Amino acid sequence: MASDRILNFSAGPSVLPDSVLEQATQGLLNFANTGIGIAEISHRSKEFLAFLDELESLIREQLEVPQTHRILFAQGGGTGQFAAVVMNILARDVLLRPNLAEGEERVLDYVVTGSWSSTAAKEAKKLTETVPNVRVNIAVDAKNNSADGASYDSLPPHSAYQFSENPALIYYCENETVNGIQFSKAPSDDASGEELNKKDETTFPFHLLPKNTLLPLVADYSSSFMSRPIPRLADHAIIYAGAQKNIGPAGLTILIVRQDCIVDVDAAVKLSRSAIPVPSILSYKYLADGKSVPNTPPVFSVYVSGLVLKRMKELGGPKYYEEFNRKKKEKVYETVREGEKRGVFRSKVPEDKGGSWMNVVFEVVGDGAEGRFLKGAESKGMKGLKGHRSVGGIRATLYNAVTEEATDALVAYMKEFIETETQA
Ligand code: PMP
């Protein structure tokens, strides 16, 4: 691969494996021995449809997605899903409960742990403000439990969550890309291990959710999809992720949707004014009936994502990446703590308070120190370390394609920076 590639710590679009990019270059010229490039071939060709099937199997197999759930491919990214989730889930609720009792509402519960879940909740409010009998409830806002009461610096304790009794939707974002806050993977993946999970305040509080019902639980996995196994996957109604972080180029949105959430959205609109008319492109049923190709899909993004997932499978899938990513983040957090002790860095989200494995955020202390840190990093061929424009600071992104060598180079640079800054 070209030696002019730098070490890219960008949060998305993000670095992809060199070997995959080399393969993709070939595919751009000649896809699956058709003599036609991937960006030029019909999405209805048997070769492309076979590739799409394989992409689905790669996800199903590696995440152990049960047959209760469909895997769908969409466009529109996470932002598209902020709206699609609300519309499809409201239609589902209307079909399940067409007639509400006096005073009864359809409540959308949002768990807000950072700026993406906050944006999702705002989108839900915008869409439902004038819709009768629908209300958005902020089940918890992590800001209220933060040190300054105004920023996101940790996950809230389980006791802070106030879920509604019978919500139409329960929404959370597994990894907050901007704020560097992530739910920890529960010590036990299944309901029987709930006691264990209860003890860890940084797990998602599955034990507080309604029992004996098909949960309307929706998770935004945009920036952590495929980085490790998904806890309690089968209990989710919808899991979605844009491809542009761990999986491939922007354009493709991956959905895992439980069958009962693929509903006749048009029928719901006829039944009740609580259902919003859904544009076909956002309807899960439209996507499912059209086998994810009701209209032209993002063929190139599908292609590269397939190559990435094939490589992932060869390496050992999400379990392999869990260990790989754990090692990387431990090294970076340890160095942040070292810098903190020496007065050079300040952790924004401590590792044990919901610190993300994917996006490690910290500040560089002192006048002009952040600029010096970034400039020094760039001179060593490291880019993409500047924090999101809304929060500033440093964000070291450690997605699957960030190698151990790149992580080690970053850590070595951080240590060197600590030494330079503390020299009298
Ligand atoms: N959710 C999360 C967690 C994200 O990181 C992002 C994008 N960075 C979004 C949603 C929005 O996704 P998109 O840009 O694909 O609309």
Automatic annotation (TrEMBL):
Molecular function (Gene Ontology), one example: O-phospho-L-serine:2-oxoglutarate aminotransferase activity
Pathway: Amino-acid biosynthesis; L-serine biosynthesis; L-serine from 3-phospho-D-glycerate: step 2/3
Domain Aminotransferase class V: 6-181, 217-410
Reactions listed under catalytic activity: O-phospho-L-serine + 2-oxoglutarate = 3-phosphooxypyruvate + L-glutamate; 4-(phosphooxy)-L-threonine + 2-oxoglutarate = (R)-3-hydroxy-2-oxo-4-phosphooxybutanoate + L-glutamate
Any Pfam family the entry gives: Aminotran_5
Highest taxon in the source lineage: Eukaryota
Keyword line: Amino-acid biosynthesis, Aminotransferase, Pyridoxal phosphate, Serine biosynthesis, Transferase
EC number: 2.6.1.52
Cofactor: pyridoxal 5'-phosphate
GO cellular component: cytoplasm
A Gene Ontology biological process term: L-serine biosynthetic process
Enzyme class, UniProt record, top EC level: transferase
Family, similarity comment: Belongs to the class-V pyridoxal-phosphate-dependent aminotransferase family. SerC subfamily.
Protein name: phosphoserine transaminase
Taxonomic path: Eukaryota, Fungi, Dikarya, Basidiomycota, Agaricomycotina
